[in-house]
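pasting for the record
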Amino acid sequence: MGQVWGFGKHGGPEVQEFFERPDPVPGRGEVLIRVDAAGVNPLDHAVRSGLVPGLDGGRPFPRVLGMEAAGTVLALGEDVDGLEVGDAVFGFALTGGGTYAETTVLSAPNTARIPAGLSATVAATLPVAGTTAVDVLDQLGLPSGATVLVNGVGGGVGLAVARLAIGRELRVIGTGSAARREHAEAIGVRFIDYAAEDVVAVARELVPDGFGGIVDLVGGTSLRTVAPLARDPRTVISVGDMSVPELGGRFVERRLDRGNLERSARLALDGLLAPVITAVHSLSDAPAALATVENGHASGKVVIEVA
């Protein structure tokens, strides 16, 4: 038996609870891991709220929170290739096992070995934020010297996008709240405080000819405000708002496979995708970890260290 943090039904934070569960048995294409660290993401509370159906693996309630983790392989299910018991790995819990737990199951095709020199804490931030940054910038395909606007730069994904873009020799301008300024500017972002400044006016002053690309992490009215700043609407890519094609833009094309995880890990080792980890919590403090993200107060990446 091991302790987990999950939810007994769909809803708000009030449905969350600690409970005990036996170690899961890895099914076909799954690996059982001892969890060392789990990343915390907005996706986690969206799943809890019932906004993202289909990510529960058909598992009954109560369910375990969390989508990304790093740890050590304890057992293999059938038809698992390229991984062995004892491997240090990181990946996605795409079959509903959750990651705010002492042990869990990850989807083997969406799990990779952690390379030597990379900590489990860092690796646990890469499945969501790291691979999203790689995907969105690959999709944009901007040449070095181009300017990209990161709309909502201060969170875990936004800072990952900004750091990787700067590593690709792109000029990065980012929007966010005042609390996000310090971390964004520390990695070289020209920051625009959306509450204190006129985002459109400042952006047009900085980039009169329009942006080579826009990465949107906010959606809604904010997306519609900044989208016209792109020279070509096709270079507006949203990570969270699937209505972006109405503006001529595109939704991010995600690649969750082992190869993309391995690529993200190499970039992290090289310092080109080093996550900005701003809070590390214990499993017993998981409620506070998720609350920080859900309330919009997280700047950078929040991680739960389990082992």
